[in-house]
Amino acid sequence: MTIAPPSDQLTVGAPERRRSARRAGRAPGRTPIGYVFVSLYTLLALAFGILPSLYAVVLAFTNSDGGFAGFDNFVKVIGDFRFWPAVQHVTLYLVIWLIGLLIFVVALALIVHALRARWASTSLRFIYYLPGALAGASSVLLWLFVLDPTASPVSGLLHLLGLNSFVQVIQPGNLPLIFAIIAFWTGAGGWIVIMYGALNNISTDIIEAARIDGANAFQIGLRIQLPMLRKWIAYMAVMSLAAGTQLFVEPQLLSQASNAVVPNDYSLNQLAYQYAFQQNDFNGAAAISLLLLIVALLLSWVFVTRGGLFEKE
To answer: How many CB atoms lie within 10 A of CB 284?
Structure first.
C-alpha cells in the first residue's frame, strides 16, 4: 500500500521543486559567461562586418564628392568590359568547387566514419586537417611549385596532359579548375572532420535497426546518414559560398608570379581592388562589393531554405 505524503509537505516542497526544475532546465547560453562570449563576438561582428558593410552601402550610392549618385556606380561597373568576364570566372570556379565539396567531402567523411579501426580513422582525420593549417597565401606558394612541370612532384602527370611549361598550366581556361583544386586541398579537410563529428551524432540504434533490416553500408550511407547530414551539408555550402565569392589571393599571387599571364582583374575582388587602388574609385569598388554581397546572400538563402538549416527537429 502506498502512503501519500501530507498535503502540507506537498505545499511547502512544491515551490522549491519548481525552482530546482527551472534551474535544471535553464539553457547554458543564459548564464553570465555566455553573454560575455556573445558580446565579444558581437563587437567583432560590428567592427569588421556590419559597419564596413554599411560604409560600403554609403559609398556605393554616392559619388567622389559625397553627393547622392543613385545607381550610377552600379551602371558604371556593370558596363565595364572587365566585369562580366570576372563574373564568369568566379561562377565557373564556384560551381566546380561546390560540386567537389558536396560530393567528395561527404563521401570521404562517410568512408572515414565507416572505418572500424580507431587508429586508421584518427590518422586520416589528422592528415585531412593538415592542409587547412596552412594560410591561403602559403598554400598558393606551395602550389606554384606543384603547377610548374620543371619542379612539380607530379610533373609526369602534367607532361601526360601535354602541359610542359608553367605558362601552359596557368592559361586562363585552366584557372577555374586549378583554383577549385587549391581551395579543395586547403579547406576540404576541415569540413571532413566536421562531417565526421556530425555522423557520430547519429544514433547507433538507427544504424543497427537498418542493418537488421538488411541494409548494407552503401544503403545506410545513402538513405540514412546522408539525409541526416542535410543541415550540415547546407551549412558547408553557405560558408564555402561566402569564402568562394571572395576569390582574390590565388589569382593575385599567380598574376604576380606569371608576369601577368594571369590577368590582375581575373576575379571580382581583384576588379574591386583595381577600382580602389589603381583608379582611386572607391565608390565603384564599393558597388562591386555590394553586388557580391547581394548575390552571396541570395544564394545562401537558397541553401538555407533547401537544406532546412534552421528547421526544428
So the answer is: 24
List the one residue out of 276, 254, 278, 257 whose CA is nearest residue 266.
254
Residue 36: its H or E element: helix 32-45
Q: How far apart are CA 98 and CA 94, in angstroms?
A: 6
Taking only the tens place, the pLDDT of each residue in 63-107 is 988 899 999 999 999 999 999 999 999 999 999 999 988 899 898
Query: 69 with 62: CB under 8 angstroms?
Result: yes
Report residue 197 as a C-alpha cell: 563529428
Instruction: Report the C-alpha gap between 69 and 79 in whole angstroms.
Output: 16
Give 136's pLDDT tier (boundaries 50, 70, 90).
low
Indicate the angle between helix axes 136-146 and 175-200, nearest 10 degrees.
120
3-state SS assignment for residue 42: helix
Task: Report d(CA 154, CA 158) in Å as an integer.
Answer: 7
Q: pTM score > 0.70 for this model?
A: yes
Minimal CA–CA distance to 124: which of 181, 220, 188? 188
Residue 189: closest CA among 114, 242, 139: 139
Q: Give, as one character, the DSSP assignment of residue 76.
A: H
Position of cell 560530393? Answer: 103
